[in-house]
Amino acid sequence: xxxxxxxxxxxxxxxLGIVSKxxxxxxxxxxxxxxxxxxxxxxYSHSKKAHKSKMKLLARINVAIYEAEEGREGx
Length: 75
Description:
Elements: H1 7-22, H2 29-41, H3 48-70
């Protein structure tokens, strides 16, 4: 059974591409929140390594969101 690629998949891949090339600082607050939602929705339970990477990325996104809200930069 093949899964259809959804617009959300395209959006997630686009945002992840920006993050992988330029880092989280390139995303604005709305993009960070959207990326967080899209990554949380994606199921990576089939791969332990992918799931661990997802959790690390979500932690980094949470830090970036906090910094954006507080108006400060990294530690």
